[in-house]
Amino acid sequence: MIRPNVETFIGCESSFEEASVVLYGAPFDSTTSFRPGARFGPSAMRHESFGLETYSPYQDRDLMDIRVFDSGDLELCFGSSEMALLDIEKRAKEILKADKLPLLLGGEHLVTLGAVRAVFEKYPDLHIIHFDAHADLRDDYLGARLSHACVLRRCHDLLGDNRIHQFCIRSGEREEFQFARSHTDFHPFAFDGLKETVRELKEIKAPVYFTIDLDCLDPSAFPGTGTPEAGGVSFLALLDAIRTVSQTNIVGADVNELAPMLDVSGVSTATACKVLRELLLAITE
Amino acid sequence: MIRPNVETFIGCESSFEEASVVLYGAPFDSTTSFRPGARFGPSAMRHESFGLETYSPYQDRDLMDIRVFDSGDLELCFGSSEMALLDIEKRAKEILKADKLPLLLGGEHLVTLGAVRAVFEKYPDLHIIHFDAHADLRDDYLGARLSHACVLRRCHDLLGDNRIHQFCIRSGEREEFQFARSHTDFHPFAFDGLKETVRELKEIKAPVYFTIDLDCLDPSAFPGTGTPEAGGVSFLALLDAIRTVSQTNIVGADVNELAPMLDVSGVSTATACKVLRELLLAITE
Amino acid sequence: MIRPNVETFIGCESSFEEASVVLYGAPFDSTTSFRPGARFGPSAMRHESFGLETYSPYQDRDLMDIRVFDSGDLELCFGSSEMALLDIEKRAKEILKADKLPLLLGGEHLVTLGAVRAVFEKYPDLHIIHFDAHADLRDDYLGARLSHACVLRRCHDLLGDNRIHQFCIRSGEREEFQFARSHTDFHPFAFDGLKETVRELKEIKAPVYFTIDLDCLDPSAFPGTGTPEAGGVSFLALLDAIRTVSQTNIVGADVNELAPMLDVSGVSTATACKVLRELLLAITE
Amino acid sequence: MIRPNVETFIGCESSFEEASVVLYGAPFDSTTSFRPGARFGPSAMRHESFGLETYSPYQDRDLMDIRVFDSGDLELCFGSSEMALLDIEKRAKEILKADKLPLLLGGEHLVTLGAVRAVFEKYPDLHIIHFDAHADLRDDYLGARLSHACVLRRCHDLLGDNRIHQFCIRSGEREEFQFARSHTDFHPFAFDGLKETVRELKEIKAPVYFTIDLDCLDPSAFPGTGTPEAGGVSFLALLDAIRTVSQTNIVGADVNELAPMLDVSGVSTATACKVLRELLLAITE
Amino acid sequence: MIRPNVETFIGCESSFEEASVVLYGAPFDSTTSFRPGARFGPSAMRHESFGLETYSPYQDRDLMDIRVFDSGDLELCFGSSEMALLDIEKRAKEILKADKLPLLLGGEHLVTLGAVRAVFEKYPDLHIIHFDAHADLRDDYLGARLSHACVLRRCHDLLGDNRIHQFCIRSGEREEFQFARSHTDFHPFAFDGLKETVRELKEIKAPVYFTIDLDCLDPSAFPGTGTPEAGGVSFLALLDAIRTVSQTNIVGADVNELAPMLDVSGVSTATACKVLRELLLAITE
Amino acid sequence: MIRPNVETFIGCESSFEEASVVLYGAPFDSTTSFRPGARFGPSAMRHESFGLETYSPYQDRDLMDIRVFDSGDLELCFGSSEMALLDIEKRAKEILKADKLPLLLGGEHLVTLGAVRAVFEKYPDLHIIHFDAHADLRDDYLGARLSHACVLRRCHDLLGDNRIHQFCIRSGEREEFQFARSHTDFHPFAFDGLKETVRELKEIKAPVYFTIDLDCLDPSAFPGTGTPEAGGVSFLALLDAIRTVSQTNIVGADVNELAPMLDVSGVSTATACKVLRELLLAITE
After folding, report:
1. What is the Cα–Cα distance from C195 to C197, expressed in whole angstroms?
2. Lowest-pLDDT choice from B73-87, E94-108, E238-252
3. Which residue, A225, C12, C147, F34, shows the most beta carbons closer than 10 Å to its own?
4. How remote is the C-alpha of E277 from its chain's centroid?
5. What does residue D270 show for φ and ψ, rounded to 5 degrees?
6. Which residues contact E150 (CB under 8 A, 6 or more apart)?
7. Which coenzyme or cofactor does it need (chains A, B, C, D, E, F) (predicted)?
């Protein structure tokens, strides 16, 4: 019997029904202000994942042991942020309704807003843990309030003060840094303070949305992204941080901002795949 | 006296007041559905133009002999097509009001709509001559009516039947080709019929907006574009066609869809510069 | 209902049962002697095909009107040509047994041998029409008789004299050209003589295997291949030749030697997709 | 009012009169012996700087708070090192005469010599702090004494022993290392000893020319340079060292050896921009 | 007198007779399962080595002081692993017979097996020190037992338990890690334990074959390889480890898995050259 | 017996004594005003030539039948045009003295001047046939009289009027075109008039220096060059023209301006190799 060509992230071959985690891709980058191409991130990760092993020697766990369903990429409207966000939110809600964890593959960082809207509806006491080089806290960007540069500000509109926990931030306007110091749990440059934040979130049993902008990594480790920022964290530091965060009650997550057109050596895509593998293994433990 | 760094397309150093043609760039590609990057087209052309001579041996004319002002790139909002189009339209109107010819550098092809709106307001009997690989006649694209794939359809909404003259078209949905055969002056694949079209437009003294999607060129001559389509015209054929069109009463024009990120050898940018030089020399004759 | 991520060549979404043509990919390039990477050809074509329209204005036909099933890529053993060829042959036989036309996507040109073995078993009076820059008629290459440089010679071992019709050949050892002049129907450089060859094959109602090495195209049109050879045919000439060949009784076919790693602008992959679309539409007419 | 296209490094929009620092670019690489292209460094930095924020969270300072004038690139003669150096020297003198700090953007490292000649004329007790992977202390290179490989040796001809302070050096001929140990304040491999050197220079209130060859960075952080040398310093170490050096009396500076043609991911250009921003903010404190 | 063009790795210009070390290249990558191109590694290293100094400031030694002969690349059969391995083994034996140390430049890692067979014949008590990101301990890969993914397993077939010392390993199937823990001296992730291993090998005066898969380096330092694995060691750590290993009795060695087609910035080739220089200087001390 | 690694252009393995043609490379591009890198042209051609067959089906001749010696690349001083030209002239004279034909591989076009000086000394009635996109007839370029943009003007200084025959020229200042029309045998754009020129040169038995700037080819066929100019000739037209010119008494020749760094697909290097093969076969007939 000859079968059609099903392409999933490696080892994510569970059925929807059996799965505890559902991958969904948001190939969108219309508001990217510098170098576009993050739209191709999720399909590149799926495609190049066959160069990755399913086994993690870091966690001594294997993707073959867990149950993940890959629902592929949404077909999103380019040029209308609101329409794209609605489609993302709708898919996230379907997944949540089936009591599975939605794991979004971006795309530019704005896509997070669609997912957060859905998760926040289900978990009004939601916290967000945010790894990123950029604060993403502008109120608008050249007039647009739905922009990758504003996405955490829009999340703040929903969640309010002290519910967003930011790490690795090393770029933004002065106003964003000032806003962060007043309104978010702000940890610039690296992961200092992460363990304490996680301890507190565990204590209050907070539901957590975990968003990883891959440009939190140093450009030496992850050059393939639209706005690289020197001075980031190493892969091993990120890996350690992911395992720390996974001790909280994660109810939604995303990995975003891989731009394969800028990843000429393929190293960034391979690293993104490895981050996703480790994230999947950590949150299903 | 040390001067600041003014960067113009080579030879376009006239003042605004003296100029008969004004260049303006629209670094926008948010609705691009396949491979983005046309936003960088106008700045790349300006930047790489210093590898080009100002003299054209084809026309025995020199950019130093004519008067062109380069107003640089507009600062456009990514993620909102309507806001971007309004800014383009506004700039075109300013130029038209000063009785100069607005020459737009794209950007994706949707930017043409902003310019056409401005030119059509001044010249209600406007015709459009359109060189392109793609018909761009969809009524909507994944729900968006303001999309590069719909731009000539939106122009048709303004101008009505038989006022759009299309050449080189070799890609589209069946419905677009059917629409074209009923509603536009349609010449697929190459420049067959161009001379007759031009003769007729000269007879009726029609004002003409001339839009060149550089992907009308064969990908061998112009690989650096988002959606290359094999089977296009040669550079020399395009050059000849530009000189033919320049016999009409051109009141506005654009050159678009160079995507420098895809132009790894630099050949496409160099060719785009040469097309622009020849266009400037032809329309000012 | 959320579905898994099925990825096919655009418009090839028929079920196996309904299909008249079945695509199968052979991601193999182990014997490539110069620059490898053709292994990634079939998946790149599938992946990038979404930048292509399903409608052909050249033939006024649409992939949506025909029935093609895409069975994805075989999982082939690298480093053993014989094992890889057996797997290809096996898949071709399955398709032939179901009375469907097997259309192979390479991979390096050696993969053709697996398909030809299967087709030849069913059609002992088989002819081969071969478009290629290279004669591929060596008896061995550095000791290996199963090499891309020998593949038509191995086909000749099966079919014998005057059953292989070669076009566009412009590279090889002197001995290969001498062999060709004695043993094949040999048309160097271009498509001269193709119409007559096709007329004769139609007269004798010969079953035809049609193998297209995409490097028959000029490198200007198709740079993304392991061994580019200046002086090839244009895309439009190839398109015309495909439609001519499609008048014969084609019982198997392949398209090979796209090397996406060398296709930095993406133009070659886009062109390969367009060749495949036109081939599918022509052979199902 | 439509203005012409002025392009400066981001945030460097002061007038010449008001500025305390003046940027000038030297797009020259004619003596580069390995891989050329540093000529495009200054324009690439200017062009890509719009992807950078003007605010530095490291120093809590903003380019909008200081006064820098960007005079663009000199038009230098390729093929004659002496003519190019004279033009650089002339520009540096103009800037020094107006009592502003000349900050040169290279170009290959030889351009430093033009600037040092001008600064040395004004400050005969000049010291040089030199960050580089390469010693650049050859007496000649294939017969040329004006070569990037000789530039610090030529500076030594002017300044004499113990006035050149070298850091990060990890490549050179044995003779260069021997010369360095006898004639310069030599700190191979990293920044060991920098604090003490700076303390001594502060004590004697020495005027300092600060030259940063960006290849002092490890190639993982800065691949886009002609002669990458594994084993360099990290971005954060460089940032720290820049702030240390800025405690001295800096009277001239340069940043050189970015080769954008080799920076396919754009990471090196982005990093060079960030180095320049931090340097500007540090020296104007 | 005009001489022909002899191209060697820089400074390796000794005659065969005088040499104590002989370089030989194995341009083979037919079993590479992910991204091929390692075949071009040895010639790229030779070609780009002229950008490297012959002097090492790390060891204060110079290639001009030692005697190395570069015998160029073998002409290997693509598509037949066994034939290629025989040719490699034959060349290694010739070199060993002349009492010189064979230093192989790969190519994919499978080439090591040819060299180890030759060295093992001469030194039956051979140990292997193995630096690699991948365990390479599969018993077969898609049916092939001669595969890059199996090469250390094949070496284990020869040498047996506890004679293979593995470092930096961070990727493999669970079964490979289990095999390693039972059958090899296994040090995952980094160089922990290397000093002790070396001390023991010195004590027993074991002859050592030293194989360096360059992907042991972190992808930030070495992106140009077929299967990059985040989380590797730094260049300086590798340099230190090489000097440690060189205290043992090294009787054969190789450096492999540079894939120049993936090394768009040239940094990986430059780093591979530097690794080879340091290795040559260390083992001849 | 193990031999060192001799690397020649494929099939050019004759000894100096036996050879009738001697290749010599001039890896120089210091005066290139736009994009450098032609310095790597000759070594890239040598290196990539192993992807080419030695047999030409166009001429039914084989490099194995003729006697060519490849003397490798000169070691030229970067940054001093005059020193580089002297070294080239010296080598050309050595070859001429041995009554062999010097065939120079550039490098930028200025290198031709060194060879022409040598050939002109031996043949004072020398003519030059010049294929190029650019006139190269400036009297100086930014003050330099030894520049690629002036090279034919410098040759005119030696030879005087009507001894330089220019073809394919399509770029230059107005003054260059005016100079050409008065002082050279000038054929812009293509090869019109070549047959007549050749007939006349045969009649007067003129010794001919034949210089091919590969950018005479259209950028679609030859993108890998510093200053590509749309509107050039095809490979087959160039091949035909070479065979026409080879009917004259060629006493020196060169092929120049391949810039491998810009040849990302490798197509330009492959084409340059094919041009050289055909030139070698044509001039030795």
Report:
1. 5
2. B73-87
3. A225
4. 13
5. -60, -40
6. E110, E136, E137, E138, E139, E140, E141, E144
7. Mn(2+)
The predicted pLDDT at position C252 comes to 98
Q: Per-residue confidence at E33, pLDDT binned at 50, 70, 90? A: confident
Cis bond upstream, residue A107 (ω within 30): yes
Q: Which residues of chain D have pLDDT under 50?
A: none
* CB contact set of C60 (below 8 Å; sequence gap of 6+): B174
pLDDT of residue F270: 98
Q: Dump the DSSP string for chain B.
A: -PPP-B--STT-B--TTT-SEEEEEE---TT-SS---GGGHHHHHHHHGGGS-SEETTTTEEGGGS-EEEEEE--PPTTBHHHHHHHHHHHHHHHHHTT-EEEEEESSTTHHHHHHHHHHHH-TT-EEEEE-SB----S-BTTBSSSGGGHHHHHHHHH-TT-EEEEEE-B--HHHHHHHHHHSEEEESS-TTHHHHHHHHHHTT-EEEEEEEGGGB-TTT---SSS--SS-B-HHHHHHHHHHHTTSEEEEEEEE---GGG-TTSHHHHHHHHHHHHHHHHHT-
Residue D189's Cβ-count burial label (10 Å; 0-12, 13-18, 19+) is: middle
Is there a binding annotation on residue E215?
A: yes
| SS3 call for D52 | coil
User: 3-class DSSP state for residue D202?
Assistant: helix
Binding-site sequence positions of F: 109, 132, 134, 136, 213, 215
Q: CB count, 10 Å around CB of B193?
A: 13
In this structure, are residues C124 and C112 in contact, taking their beta carbons and an 8 Å threshold? no
What's the pLDDT at F163? 98
Distance CA E36, CA E42 (A): 14
- What is the residue whose two structure tokens read 């060129």? B217
Set of chain D residues whose Cβ sits within 8 Å of the Cβ of B266:
none
Q: Show residues of chain D in contact with B71, CB under 8 Å.
A: 2-5
Give yes or no for a contact between B22 and B71, defined as CB atoms under 8 angstroms apart.
yes
Report chain A's mean pLDDT, rounded to a whole number.
Answer: 96
Angle at D41 between CA D38 and CA D47, to 5 degrees: 155
The pair of three-digit structure tokens given for residue A179, joined into one six-digit string: 């806003």
B187 is in an annotated binding site: no
> Which subunits count as partners of chain E given 3+ CB pairs below 8 Å?
A, C, D, F
Question: Which residue among E218, E236, E267 places its CB closest to the CB of D223?
Answer: E267
Domain parsing of chain E, residue ranges = 21-283
Mean pLDDT of chain E: 96
Residues of chain D positioned with their CB less than 8 A from the CB of E274: 229-231
Average pLDDT (F77-82) is 86
Confirm or reject CATH 1.10.10.60 for domain D21-283, answering yes or no: no
Mean pLDDT on C129-150? 95
pLDDT single digits (tens) A12-22: 999 999 999 99
What's the rounded mean pLDDT across residues E225-249? 98
Contact, F119 vs F92, CB < 8 A? yes
Taking residues B130-138, report their average pLDDT.
98
CA distance B218 to D175: 56
In one letter, which amino acid is E38? A
Q: What percent of chain B is modeled with pLDDT above 90?
A: 94
pLDDT single digits (tens) A201-232: 999 999 999 999 999 999 999 999 999 999 99
**Confidence at residue B80, expressed as pLDDT on a 0 to 100 scale:** 86
Confidence bin at E159 (pLDDT 50/70/90): very high
Per-residue pLDDT of C250-280, as tens digits, reads: 999 999 999 999 998 999 999 999 999 999 9
Residues in C whose CB is inside 8 Å of some CB of E read 29-33, 35-37, 39, 75-81, 83, 110, 141-144, 146-147, 261
Amino acid letter at F3? R
Scored b (16 or more CB within 10 A) or e, C257-274 reads: bbbbbbbbbbbbbbbbbb
